[in-house]
């Protein structure tokens, strides 16, 4: 009997230890994956943003109001101009939201970072379970995006959920689902009607091919 009691105690201790190890693993994994919602103020435009805006308007105006309009125009942006472009987009959408003309996501929450030939963006998914370390899943994707044939593709380099790496197949599945939702948004059809192609070169420059004739009403609005 004493031996059986000792064996039972050892087994019980091992079971308790395994339970604690499992609970600790789940706790730290949840803490690494979930986070609290972030409150980011609207983008404040800088002088370089205004200069880029003027450059883009002048370039588009030359194509749109040519005596013999071309079927497509091309705009090339340097790597250092991409962050300015994103601030301009966020500022414009914030103004449109205040005017009741846009009800989508504030794009500043994508928190883009532009490096040579790659873009890193975050998609915050609020699960509603705020008790779970804030309840927000932050999917982070780093890759080279492109747009053609009314479809966005991303050549993934790295992906994470919170602070943990995402397996490649799962990351592609999540990204595909997010893009599918974007395709259903109100503004995507308009975007496809204006833009023919977008590609990022290895040196980090972004090339946008657009339809000047369809941009005319936008510039004159």
List its salient traits.
221 residues; 6 helices
Show the helix and strand layout.
Blueprint: H1 2-33, E1 34-35, H2 47-64, E2 73-77, H3 79-98, E3 113-115, E4 118-126, E5 136-148, E6 151-161, E7 164-165, H4 168-183, H5 186-194, E8 195-200, E9 206-210, H6 212-220
Helix pairs in contact: 2-3, 2-6
Summarize the structure.
Helix content is about 45%, strand content about 25%. With about 220 residues, the chain is an alpha+beta fold. Strands 1, 2, 3, 4, 5, 6, 7, 8 and 9 form a nine-stranded antiparallel beta sheet that branches.
How many distinct helices?
Answer: 6
Biggest β-sheet strands, sense, barrel: 9 strands, antiparallel
Radius of gyration: 24 Å
How large is the share of residues in beta strands? Answer: 25-35%
Could you report the average pLDDT, rounded to the nearest whole number? 86
Instruction: Note the gap between the termini.
Output: 91 Å
The SS-based structural class is alpha+beta
User: Which stretches are poorly predicted, pLDDT < 50 over at least 5 residues?
Assistant: none
Overall form:
elongated
What letter string, H or E per element, gives the SSE order?
HEHEHEEEEEHHEEH
Counting DSSP E segments of at least 2 residues, the number of strands comes to 9
- Helix % is 40-55%
